[in-house]
Write a structure and sequence with these properties.
The complex is a heterodimer of chains A (about 300) and B (about 325). By secondary structure, chain A is mostly helical. Helices cover about 80% and strands about 0% of the residues of chain A. Chain A has two domains: about 20-60; about 65-295, MetI-like (MetI-like fold), CATH 1.10.3720. The radius of gyration of chain A is 28 Å and the shape is flat. The termini of chain A are far apart. Chain B starts with a helix and ends with a helix. The chains are: A mainly alpha (about 300), B mainly alpha (about 325). Chains A and B meet through helix 1, helix 3, helix 4, helix 5 and helix 6 of A and helix 1, helix 2, helix 3, helix 4 and helix 5 of B.
Chain lengths: ~300, ~325
Amino acid sequence: MTISASKNYSDIVSEIVDKKYRKRKLVNRLVTIGTIVCVIAAIVPLASILLEVVKNGISAISFDFLTQPQGSIGSGGGGVAPAIQGTIIVVGLASAIGTPVGVLTGIYLSEFAKEGFFPNAVRFFNDVLTGLPSIVIGIVGYVTIVLTTGSFSVMAGALSLSIIMMPIVVRVTEETLRIVPYSLREAGHSLGLSKAKITLFIVLPAAKEGILTGIVIAISRIAGETAPLIMTILGTSLFFTGITGPVDALPLRIWRLASQPYESAHSFGWGSALVLILMILALSLGLRLLIQRKSYKPVT
Amino acid sequence: MGSKHKQTLSTLFAARKKRHDKLFFGLVIGAAAYTLLMVGLVGFSVTKGSIDIFSKEGISFLTKSDWNAVEGRESYGAYPYIIGTLLSAAIAMAIGVPVSLAIAIFISEIAPPKIGTALSFLSELLAAVPSIIYGLWALFVFRFWVLDLTEKPLYAAFHGYLPFFAKTPFGLDIFTAGIVLAIMIIPIVSSICREVMRVVPYSQREAAYSLGATRWETVRMSVFPYVKSGIVGASMLGLGRAIGETILVTMIIGNVIGPGAVPTSLFSQGQTLASLVANEFNEASSNLQLSALIALGAILLVLTMVVNIVARILVKKKAKIKSGAQSQ
């Protein structure tokens, strides 16, 4: 075999390889472009939602809008104050039940019983609960409270929302506590502290950031729920009268307003949507500030 | 005598410690029991609420299409809404899963870390928007985009030959509901896909690159095989969401009742299990109708439970690789 022939041969090979490589490069580039297109396609709705809510919402918001009950239908007067109040009450009550139960269950799963039939059952059914549609959980409030007391009520709404909230908090608490280094607990044991004290004053503060974030996510989630409220708090145009009576809530009000044929109602709907988003935003901003101010980072 | 004093003190402390621990343990196990109790309460409520209709209609409740609330002629069937639920969820999956996967690939394999973080933040933001606001936006803004940009052209091009496009589009229909559901599940599905892809050991990718693979080939040959079941799991979690979503669908699906709710094309107005419950719950005129509505909830419960359990099993399988990969 002469040198020139071998060169010739390798030239042919490299040409074929080049050709194939160009095609592979092209496919690679097309896929990259495709993924970028998908990313943009997903951002457009987000931008549009935020833009529309702010644009249409801002013109509806006024002092009356935030402080007055709704005027007569179609007139455009009054405001959505009962809905704002109702959302705060129902969500507050639900969080008051859901947060402690969720955190304590998370502590149980992470600190007391990692394996075994009972904790695994709790974990499994907790996951099941997370996946249930909120309207199904609304049925719980309806059947157990509305049917037995004979009235739509704040209690029924708070019960349903707390059931939606709990599994989220349980999961976050368990997962965050698991990350806390074991050495912290050992340090507590070596000081002769009780497990209760170790958990409450050492492990929990170390995991505070993650758990609080989880709680805020859960609260934001239930603040935006509509479906279970239809079956539990009903929605009225009046202010809060007591936890055994019906009350209004922002998501419910938005839904009712959107289904009315009046321009003014739609404008109120956008205004309520903006208030709801701002409330959720304020919650997570408040959390950020809280965490930044007294952040505690465990030394690993 | 000093030591004796010390001893009593330490036993005293020990006793207190024990008491604290007992109390605390009681508290946490009580909370755990409470969560289980709530699960039981869900099962109990749904069963109790739907028992009337199932004892009257039996299993035919699942296959009938009537929805007649007139006294004396009451007759209820869930069939059209089961189909409506499955069809709208299927559209959501067909659009949402490929897009989510593409976004996950972009963030975890292609984008520089800074852009990736920014996009993750955006998708978290999108996930935090309540579904009622998606609904409001879809009703007043997005449905016109769907109508003008996709439905009308599709109708013009295919209505002669393809039965799924054979109905004059109106904007408030199963197709629109499916697309908005897709938008709603993309943040969740893409973020789980991203998580499972991140778990793939980096050495896998390096091996492919060292053989001269392009980025796409690397993803296809050394990332996908690892994450297949995780992606299926993520999609099924999205499916669970799409099946159970209520208020958003109620606002845009067109809300028809009875035999007419069985969709004949993608552009048919429809109804899902959840949307019918939301629509009629406060206007139900009889206990039987209420029971029928709660029974729709029961079907929804079973459907989402099956989907979610399968999904969790698939995602968990991936999580096991996680610990191995990290300890390397």
